[in-house]
Amino acid sequence: MSTSPSKSLETFDNPQTGRDYTIRMRMPEFTCLCPKTGQPDFATLYLDYVPDKLCIELKSLKLYIWSFRDEGAFHEAVTNQMLDDLVAVTDPRFMRLTAEFMVRGGIYTSVVAEHKAGNWLPSQRIELP
Predict the structure, then answer these.
(1) Residue 2: is its pLDDT beyond 80?
(2) Does 124 map to a domain?
(3) Residues labelled catalytic
(4) Taking 90 as the threshold, does the pLDDT of residue 105 lie above it?
């Protein structure tokens, strides 16, 4: 596998397709460039998903995230593009990508994008005493 930035995302078979479970990832080193100024934008990405048949392979995800480092992108556009790309390769039951960008001009930006498979219903949350 490459150790250079790449738009290629790899997957592996979900080891427990008969159960809904949540995979949570935190990626604190996301960077891209402001399309207006060319200055770097920094964000922490939070990916939460309920896999169906496939899971995201972590090294390919790291290289994918790295591939945005030299690209100009508005926060809203890059968050939605990443969600679309991740959904395209995994076809999850549910996926949410949250991008929390660092301050720029006194403004913090958070963008949340979600995908839900049309036939999937989340299980009811159980509160234990």
Answers:
(1) no
(2) no
(3) 34, 41
(4) no
